[in-house]
Amino acid sequence: MSRSLAIPHEALNSIVGAALERADSADIISRCLRLEGTGESASLSVTTEDESLRLDLGGFDRLFVIGIGKAAARMACSLEAVLGERITDGIVVTKYGHREELSRLVLLEAGHPVPDEAGVGAARRLEALLADVNEKTLVISLVSGGGSALLVSPYHDEQRALSLGDLQEVTRLLLSCGATIQETNCLRKHLSAVKGGRLARLMAPATSLNLILSDVVGDDLGSIASGITAPDTTTYGEALEIARRHGILDSLPAAARALIEAGDRGEIPETPGPEDPAFDRVYNVIVGSNTQALQAAAEAARAEGFYTVALTSRLVGEAREVGKLFPALARDVRDSGMLAAPPVCVLAGGETTVTIRDPEGRGGRNQELCLSALRELASGTAEPDDGVVFASVATDGNDGPTDAAGGYIDADIVRRAAADPGALERALAGNDSYTYLDSLGALVRTGPTNTNVCDIQVLLVSP
Known about the structure:
Elements: H1 10-22, H2 25-32, E1 33-36, E2 43-47, E3 52-56, E4 62-68, H3 72-83, E5 89-95, E6 106-110, H4 117-130, E7 137-143, H5 147-150, H6 164-176, H7 181-190, H8 198-203, E8 207-213, H9 236-245, H10 254-264, E9 282-288, H11 290-303, E10 307-315, H12 319-322, H13 325-336, E11 344-350, H14 365-378, E12 388-394, E13 406-409, H15 411-418, H16 421-429, H17 433-440, E14 443-444, E15 455-461
Parallel strand pairs: 4-5, 4-7, 5-6, 7-8, 8-9, 10-11
Antiparallel strand pairs: 1-2, 2-3, 11-15, 12-13, 12-15, 13-14
Helix pairs in contact: 1-11, 2-3, 7-9, 9-10, 13-14, 14-15, 14-16
């Protein structure tokens, strides 16, 4: 049974809830991980839809666990249940408010999306733990979205050293300029001592099994949590070009700009690439993704009697532009039976972006997407369609720096918005989707879900 949400539409509530339930990070670990045998003959198997891996534990005399991300604490709960006393030591870093009770691992909380001192302290403790590994050590890492901000180790060498303040300012600039997650992570990797595969270097020569929950469109290992355990194919030159393209190069902190420019000149070694020996004993396994959430949503929609179309798990673009798609699809279904005759459910997933026009506004990409869709539905002269409902929801429960996971739209909300179109336009122009949707009672609040597999959109067109 799917979790109960506050969306006042039974079918929509059931479909969104089913997606969140399938993405539950503790259940994902329980499904894919098995401890087999005892003593020296024990082995650990990992089985997903796409791959199967088995590690003999007899060759290791220590087993360390590290966790980084919004889902890390909940993943760690399941891992503790599987491995128990076999765990030698470990540290888990998650976002404030996403904690779980752990029995064998140290749990630390830090800031997201802007890194803070707690994240720096967590990175230092994790680096100290890994300083003691050798060939007889197995490190299991639990990686999920949010890890880029939560594990904070500013780049430093004998000649250069960034500060936390430098990384905080770079993060703020990237969050407001409309950069994609891949572009954002390119800069993060080259300003960090642990990202872009540099954590894999710290884990060498140990064997590392990295269980990864993907919050990135296309499940690119190099982008999830800034690719801390994956080879990096991006360069300092690309980071420089991204900053230039988005108009933030001149606004970068002086030390950060100097570092990127020095790297572009070849004065600093690049992040480790695929041929680096640091990856000789690295096993990266994606255990959960947006596709799984969409599959669960589709199953729930069909159980509710809807003909179901899953458009994509790779939805990207400006949220205010992407939001126009779903009202258009609703009209096509209603007017011509395109896709199918109602009842129809259209699903999508991915991660859109928001270019901040007014830093005083409050909201997130799902709320802005909903606001854009609402404008399309409220701008016509026809009576709002009582058979059309829509929701856009962040699976981690945090859409931007707000307490909402996203928003939903139905005919009553469309009527309220149409009564004062100026207010809607002001909210969209000022990136203030949270305040506006809250005034309409159109926010979806789940609380922290302690998972993270991108966003989901659900459109229902009933007869």
